[in-house]
Amino acid sequence: MSTDIQTPRSGSGKISPQYRRGTGSKGNFEMFAWLFMRLSGVVLVVLIFGHLFVNLMVGEGIHGIDFGFVAGKWADPFWQFWDLAMLWLAMLHGTNGVRTIINDYAEKDATRLWLKVVLYAATVVIVVLGTLVIFTFNPCPVANGVQLPGGFCPAP
């Protein structure tokens, strides 16, 4: 008794023709995406542990984190760029990972296209809004000549 086992994804007819993907070359994009994941992962580990150390170990620890703590940190351009790098790298790293999952599991081209459109749109919105928050943050806002309550801002 002999059993013939088909090679996985060998075109044995188990995948309907409408779900077959083209064999077109994507150039070096996938190699650069793979390399980006490794390098950004290493940089993210440094950024995240630095962020956690400063926020949780230095000063009063977790009890010292409040609006004033964040306002004081973001008054320094170093911490603005640190948090910006963390935001951008985390979003791009995560987007690339989800893009890979979409490519692996979405069988129809149209489904893959729309999932990626939603993914990229969400990424752009979060990166733009996060960048705006980091660079336009004002801890002592004034509206119509009246200083809004911030709890720690000096009285006018």
Can you describe this structure?
With 156 residues, this protein is mainly alpha-helical. It has one domain: 3 helical TM bundles of succinate and fumarate reductases (Up-down Bundle), CATH 1.20.1300. It is 60% helix and 3% strand. It contains four helices and two strands; from the N terminus they run ααααββ. The protein has a two-stranded antiparallel ribbon. Helix 1 crosses helix 3 and helix 3 packs antiparallel against helix 4. The longest helix is centred in the middle third of the chain and has 29 residues. The termini are far apart. The model has no long low-confidence stretch (mean pLDDT 84). Pfam families: Sdh_cyt. It is found in: Membrane. This is Succinate dehydrogenase hydrophobic membrane anchor subunit.
Q: What's the CATH class, please? A: Mainly Alpha
Per CATH, the superfamily is Fumarate reductase/succinate dehydrogenase, transmembrane subunit
Q: CA-to-CA gap between the ends?
A: 92 Å
Estimate nothing, just give the exact number of structural domains.
Answer: 1
Overall pLDDT, averaged? 84
Strand order of the largest sheet: 1-2
Radius of gyration equals 24 Å
What is the name of the CATH architecture?
Up-down Bundle
Count of DSSP-assigned helices: 4
Strand-pairing-aware structural class = mainly alpha
Helix content: 55-70%
**Element-by-element helix/strand order:** HHHHEE
Q: Report the CATH topology name.
A: 3 helical TM bundles of succinate and fumarate reductases
Tell me about the biggest sheet? 2 strands, antiparallel
Beta percentage is under 5%
> Could you say which overall geometry the principal axes of the C-alpha atoms support?
elongated
Low-confidence runs (pLDDT<50, min 5 residues)? none
Work out the number of β strands: 2
